[in-house]
Design brief:
This is beta-mannosidase. Pathway: Glycan metabolism; N-glycan degradation. Its EC number is 3.2.1.25. InterPro entries: Beta-gal/glucu_dom_sf, Beta-mannosidase-like_N2, Beta-mannosidase_GH2, Galactose-bd-like_sf, GH, Ig-like_fold, Mannosidase_ig. One of its GO terms (molecular function) is beta-mannosidase activity. The protein is an alpha+beta fold. The chain has five domains: about 190 residues, Jelly Rolls; about 110 residues, Immunoglobulin-like, CATH 2.60.40; about 325 residues, TIM Barrel; about 100 residues, Immunoglobulins (Immunoglobulin-like), CATH 2.60.40; about 90 residues, Immunoglobulin-like. About 20% of the residues lie in helices and about 30% in strands. It contains 17 helices and 48 strands. A six-stranded antiparallel beta sheet has the order 4-3-6-12-9-10. A six-stranded parallel beta sheet has the order 31-30-29-28-27-34. The chain has a five-stranded antiparallel beta sheet with strand order 1-2-16-7-11. A hairpin with a 5-residue loop joins β40 and β41. α7 runs parallel beside α8, α9 packs parallel to α11 and α13 crosses α14. The longest helix has 26 residues. It is globular. It starts with a helix and ends with a helix. The N terminus is likely disordered.
């Protein structure tokens, strides 16, 4: 009777706790999220913010309480900098009963960054790494009484400054501060926090604090399954071998565990001879952790292959793992659920290999082979979806961005090393969408310390995150850092005077610490020591003489003062993992566009331009190829910024298009097998290299990427010999295809072609590039008496068998600023139909674009008055219109279907209009 009463009281108290400040996430009620009714205040008690929900950050809480304005508007990155320089306290009440449980563990999955953790008056411990999971034994305080759980946060800015002061007699950790134009904070490389939190050349300083991942109370009496590491390899006898490492936890100290692990793959039988259960009798380590390995196998014909986007489907299978304590079967237990644990991870059956075979030119290739098929990697670089970590895991926005990558025919994203280890949702979506992941560890553009405490927390960070992420079939390769090898070798930060000392620190951190942790916890994938690097090209000292060697590994290529529209400048490397160019966000994306005069907007845009080169690369590229706006930035008129933004986006799109298409066409000639432009997304409205603005608006580049990265593409450009080079590019598999390719020379200002050239029966094999022709286009024009400045080339490929259009493209034969025909095309836009779904909150508008004569790069934008509409995308934009009428679809997120888009809501710009002026 007493036992039943105790259990009843426990359940009652548990339910009260759930109703007050947590909800159940486990069907066995062994895990409770402590996510409700948190109170936040500064240490002086000036600001008190009640009733907060996790995940949370101080900036977000202050914004929601309207104590500060939005961090992302006007000059608030500077105006609110005081927030990150103060200390803050998070507090919530906690009541629990633990008498029926062997272990009650408080687990903090993500604390940003420095906090002392108290339960009641007891100091549980401290946190100092936002990427690490912390666990504390609280069983002794789960007696039914109510205790206050408090996290005393210390400013990351102050902590970094304090650590730097303690380094006064040691080798400085460089760079000590970002460039002044960043408006950033110093010494971020001394702490384990998102490196971009202290500002970057594309982002603001937001030295966040808070609880950015769940805090959970874990109740159990045997063992908990923390991670499942999965390595899948094919065998010669038509089997998939699945090596599973189950990471168990039993409290926080050494314990004896005995029980049984059970394995199952839903809807897939194991191969004959596979044992689906494993008896475990062992002792955990001093942290209460135990790794248990087991081998499973399935027949290859029982499952389907997982493929990258564009090469096939992405079937995923659920691997179920259950733990049962031996006591369940030996003695009748009143609460057997406390002796069980289970988890499910989704796996995919594929092989991924990084091939680096030697070549005749003394170099090596560098490409990914998936299921024995060489893959040309097409994609981008991913930065966190928000500068505030507590917002970076927003499911709808992460999904939007990844779908946008998939829809642009990308098959790879590089998770950049200055950001975050991403959410489980991110990797799950990458699995579902076929987006291979190149994954940096979170070290970027810096030297780093190697004192014992720093190395200890780094090992924990790498171990925990690799184990969590590793089972996803999308993950293809790890790199221990971003650009730190090349920074050391090329003396980016003044390390040359003490090169030997900085070199020793580099080797200690990445070669002796990070690399072994990655390899120990993911034996299935290659690990690169840096990006860029020479790959596995032998180097005795781990720091290559030229980490940017185009004949080895991967390269990062940026050139801001050669004409980026000129294909002849691009030579490429084996794999180009970063390249790109800046542009400005759309005029309508600036909230201030409606209230600021042009000069005020100039000041704001200048403030948000964090590149030390300023706007000059953008302006230089426009001067090379396009007419600049008539007014100047010092005295801008009302059209200056709308015109300049249009030209910047057109120039960015042309540069990335040209460079990418050269890389795709030279797949065989140069061995280039990867093109990942910088960067996919943004964290605020500011000049940057992104193709998608913060909030979801596509720049012209992202609209164009649907063609640039198309699986079947027709590439053409003027090469280094002034020849028109034409290549048929095909990434798809299957039988040979035959294309008919038409080349038409058009005069600007007229719809009809003045000359044609046709290539019949061009055989295009699967997963390859075919050079169709290289011919003297300028000699041909001279023979016809035609001037290059008056003409361009339009190309189209059709399937020979059906006449179906396969691909289209264009080639400019001279700079647009030299075009002499400046006839006004008189562009008109009409709304043909508009439909809004209240269920999906999507409005879709069919537009008809009409021109009197051909229009050059028609740029459509909504007016600023429609800024309440979100994620508005045109099906085509920045296009050449060499037909009188063209249909374009506009889709927007319109909550409640309140907006009625009309023709007057859409502005139009063309290069013709700027040439005329």
């Amino acid at each position: 009777m007493l036992d039943a009463l105790k259990f009843f009281l426990f359940v009652l108290l548990l339910l009260v706790t759930i109703l007050l400040n947590q909800h159940v996430t486990s069907k066995q009620s062994a895990e409770l999220d402590l996510d409700l009714l948190w109170h936040i205040q500064d240490t002086k008690g000036v600001y008190v913010i009640p009733n907060q929900t996790l995940p949370s950050g101080v900036y977000t809480a202050l914004e929601q309480s309207m104590i500060i304005g939005s961090l992302l508007e006007e000059y608030n990155d500077v105006n609110t900098s005081w927030v990150g320089q103060q200390d803050w306290i998070y507090r919530a009440n906690l009541s629990c009963v633990a008498s029926e449980y062997e272990y009650v563990v408080l687990t903090l999955h993500g604390v940003d960054t420095f906090a002392d953790v108290y339960l009641g008056e007891r100091l549980l411990g401290s946190t100092d790494n936002m990427f690490v999971r912390y666990r504390f034994d609280v069983k002794g305080q789960c007696d039914g009484s109510t205790n206050e759980l408090r996290l005393h946060f210390r400013s990351a800015v102050s902590e970094a400054r304090s650590k730097a002061a303690s380094w006064s007699n040691r080798l400085p950790v460089l760079p000590e501060c970002p460039p002044p134009v960043y408006n950033g904070q110093c010494h971020v490389n001394l702490i384990r926090k998102m490196q971009a939190s202290f500002a970057w050349d594309w982002g603001l300083a937001a030295p966040s604090m808070g609880i950015w991942k769940p805090i959970r109370l874990e109740y159990y009496s045997s063992a908990l399954i923390r991670d499942v590491v999965v390595t899948i390899t094919g065998t010669a006898d038509d089997l998939w071998l699945i090596e599973v490492m189950v990471h168990l936890e039993a409290g926080l100290t050494e314990h004896r565990v005995a029980g049984q692990l059970t394995f199952k793959i839903f809807d897939v039988p194991f191969a004959t001879g596979t044992e689906s259960t494993l008896t475990v009798v062992n002792t955990t380590n001093e942290r209460g952790e135990l790794a248990v390995g087991h081998r499973l196998s399935v027949r290859k014909d029982a499952v389907q292959l997982w493929w990258p986007n564009g090469y096939g489907r992405q079937p995923l299978y659920s691997l179920y793992v259950q733990w049962e304590d031996a006591a369940i079967n030996s003695v009748k237990q009143p609460h057997p659920d406390t002796l069980q644990a289970e988890t499910i991870v989704r796996i995919g059956f594929r092989t991924v290999r990084l091939s680096q075979e030697r070549t005749d030119d003394g170099g090596q290739l560098f490409y990914f082979v998936v299921n024995d098929v060489p893959i040309f990697a097409k994609g981008s670089n991913w930065i966190p979806s928000s500068i505030l970590p507590e917002r970076s895991y927003d499911p709808s926005y992460v999904k939007f961005l990844l779908y946008a990558a998939r829809d642009a025919h990308m098959n790879m994203l590089r998770v950049w090393g200055g950001g975050l280890y991403e959410s489980n949702l991110f990797y799950r979506l990458a699995d579902e969408l076929g987006l291979l992941i190149w994954h940096d560890l979170m070290f970027a553009c810096s030297m780093y310390p190697t004192e014992a405490g720093f190395l200890r927390t780094v090992r924990d960070e790498v171990r925990q995150n690799v184990r969590r992420i590793q089972h996803h079939p999308s993950v293809a390769v790890w790199a221990t850092n971003n650009e730190n090898e090349v920074a050391l070798r090329q003396n980016w930060y003044g390390t040359e005077a003490n090169f030997s000392a900085y070199y020793e620190q580099y080797v200690e951190l990445y070669v002796r610490q990070v690399l072994p942790e990655v390899e120990a916890n993911d034996p299935s994938r290659p690990v690169l020591l840096s990006s860029p690097s020479n790959g596995d090209h032998p180097s005795k000292d781990y720091v290559a003489a030229n980490p940017q060697d185009p004949l080895h590994g991967d390269v990062h290529y940026y050139n801001y003062f050669l004409d980026g529209w000129n294909a002849a400048q691009y030579r490429g490397g084996r794999f180009v993992s970063e390249y790109g160019f800046q542009s400005f966000p759309a005029y309508t994306s600036w909230p201030e566009a409606r209230s600021y005069d042009p000069l005020e907007l100039t000041r704001l845009i200048n403030h948000r331009q964090h590149s030390p080169l300023g706007h000059e690369p953008i302006l230089t590229m426009i001067r090379f190829n396009l007419p600049l706006p008539a007014s100047s930035p010092d005295a801008p008129d009302a059209t200056y910024w709308p015109d300049l933004i249009f030209l910047s986006q057109l120039s960015q799109a042309m540069i990335v298009k040209t460079e990418t298409e050269v890389y795709r066409a030279r797949r065989l000639a140069h061995g280039t097998m990867g093109a990942l432009y910088w960067q996919l997304n943004d964290v605020w409205i500011a000049p940057s290299w992104s193709s998608i603005e913060y909030g979801g608006t596509f720049k012209l580049l992202h609209v164009w990427l649907r063609q640039i990265f198309a699986p079947e593409h027709l590439v053409s450009f003027v090469n280094e010999r002034r020849q028109l080079e034409i290549a048929a590019v095909r990434d798809t598999l299957g039988a040979d295809d035959r294309w008919r390719i038409e080349l038409r020379i058009h005069r600007y200002g007229t719809f009809g072609a003045v000359d044609r050239r046709t290539y019949e029966e061009v055989t295009v094999g699967p997963n390859t590039v075919v050079t169709v022709d290289r011919y003297d286009i300028y000699g041909h024009l001279a023979h016809l008496g035609l001037k290059p400045s008056d003409h361009l080339v339009l190309l189209a490929a059709y399937r020979q068998s059906s006449g179906q259009l396969v691909a289209e493209n264009f080639v400019l034969l001279d700079k647009l600023k030299h075009v002499r025909d400046r006839t006004d095309p008189t562009v008109t836009v009409s709304v043909v139909a508009a439909v809004c779904s209240e269920r999906s909150n999507l409005t879709s508008v069919s537009l008809e674009v009409t021109v009197r004569v051909p229009a050059l790069f028609v740029y459509l934008q909504l007016t600023p008055e429609n800024s309440t509409l979100k994620q508005c995308q045109f099906s085509d934009n920045g296009f050449l219109q060499f037909q009188p009428i063209r249909t374009v679809q506009l889709t927007c997120v319109d909550a409640g279907c309140r907006n009625k888009i009309q023709s007057r809501d859409i502005t139009v710009r063309t290069v013709n209009g700027l040439l005329k002026s």
